[in-house]
Amino acid sequence: METPHAVVLVEGTSDQVALETLARRRGRDLAAEGVLVEAIGGAQAIRRAFARNDGARLVGLVDAGEADGFRRVLDAVFVCDPDLEGELIRALGADEVLRVLDVHGDLGPFRTLQKQPSWRGRDVEEQLRRFMGSGGSRKIQYARHLVDALDLDHVPEPLDGVLAAV
Questions:
Q1: What confidence tens digit (pLDDT) does each residue in 9-66 have?
Q2: Which residue among 24, 106, 115, 131 is buried most deeply as judged by most CB within 10 Å?
Q3: CATH class, 6-84+152-165 region
Q4: What is the DSSP string of 66-94?
């Protein structure tokens, strides 16, 4: 891609995968549109990413706990509450997320997490967020799987918002 006209700055690879998957599902080719989704390696890298992309329209997707740092630098910031996984789990509902886990062979490991003393009795949504966040590749893998499972009429607002902004 030549110099992009718009860059979406996201904290990590799972956010990038989720946005690129949603764009594909919506029939968009971000590269052809001159839009780059850049995983910056954590919210603390926002100033460096901003400087590196000077001249492009910059928007951000960030977790609620890191939003202030993005807002200090970017004009358009879309905030996941509390994070991407929480947004996707809420949009799909716990039963659908469990079905997706089952389809991809991870329902057993999830049930093992639920049996751990520190996770027993907690809300299933909280357990699912923890499970998605354990192991870097799982978070990335399920960013794609959960977005693929979304009803396109019920996409979390931060994801739809950031794509609408570019």
A1: 999 999 999 999 999 999 999 999 999 999 999 999 999 999 998 788 999 999 999 9
A2: 131
A3: alpha beta
A4: GHHHHHHH-SEEEEESS-HHHHHHHHH-H
